[in-house]
Amino acid sequence: MVASPYKLDIRWEKLPDDFILPDDPVDNIAQPALAAALTDALTIAGYLAADALITTNYGICATVNDKVVVNAPDWAYIPRISVPRDAVHRSYTPQLQGDLPLIVMEFWSDEGGSEYSIKPTYPPGKWFFYEQVLQVPYYALFDLTSSNLEFYRLEDEQRYKIVAPDEAGRYWISEMNLSLGGWSGQRENRDGTWLCWWDADGKLLLWGNEKAERLAERLRSLGVDPDKV
Hints:
- The structure is a single chain.
- The protein is of the alpha+beta class.
- It has one domain: tt1808, chain A (Alpha-Beta Complex), CATH 3.90.1570.
- The protein has three helices and twelve strands, in the order E-H-E-E-E-E-E-H-E-E-E-E-E-E-H.
- The chain has helices at about 30-45, 125-135, 210-220, and strands spanning about 10, 55, 60-65, 65-70, 75-80, 105-110, 140-145, 150-155, 160, 170-175, 180-185, 190-200.
- It has a six-stranded mixed sheet with strand order 2-5-6-7-8-9. Strands 1-3-4 form a three-stranded antiparallel sheet, covered by helices on one side. It has a three-stranded antiparallel sheet with strand order 10-11-12.
C-alpha cells in the first residue's frame, strides 16, 4: 500500500455491534436497477468467484484517527473475502475480513457533489475515503442525467487520475479481465444508458434474461418450442 500524504492512523476493526448505520434512501429509482444489472451479468457469465463479494449501498468500514468511518458505495467489487459470509452480514471491513475493494461506483442524478468530496476531516468525504483511506484502485462515477461515465485510476502518488476511454468508449480493468462501459437500451421497463461489461474479446456479458431469450431464439431456429422444453 502506498503511504498516504495525510497523517492518518488507519485501523481495520470490526464495526461495533451498537454502531448505528445510516439508512439513507437512494437518490434515484434507477440506482438499484443499475447495480443489479452489473452484478447479474458477472454472475451469469461466471466471473464471480465463490469468495468474491459485491456490495450495493452497503457499509464499508475503517477506523480513521480513532473514529469509525462507514461509506456505502452504490456498487463495489471485492475480489476475495477471508471470512464466512454471515460474518459480513452487517458491514465489511477490508484487511480484517478480506481484500480491499478493487472498484467502487457511485451513481447520481441532477447535481453530484458528495461523490467528489475530498474533505479530510471527520467524517471524510467519499472521494477522500476511497482514495486516501481505502486506496481503491478504480473509482467510477456515473451521472444518470447525462449518462456520462467518469473513470479514475489510483496512480503511484496515490491520487485518482481520470482515464480516457478506448476507441469503443470503454475502460479496461486488467484485474477483472473485463471492460466497463455504457450501453443504451431497455431493461426492467427502463430505457436509458446502462453500465455493462465486455470481455477481453469485446464480447458483451449478457444479463440473465437476455441469455434466456437468445437460447429460446436458438431453439426456435432448430424447430423446438422453448415453452415445451
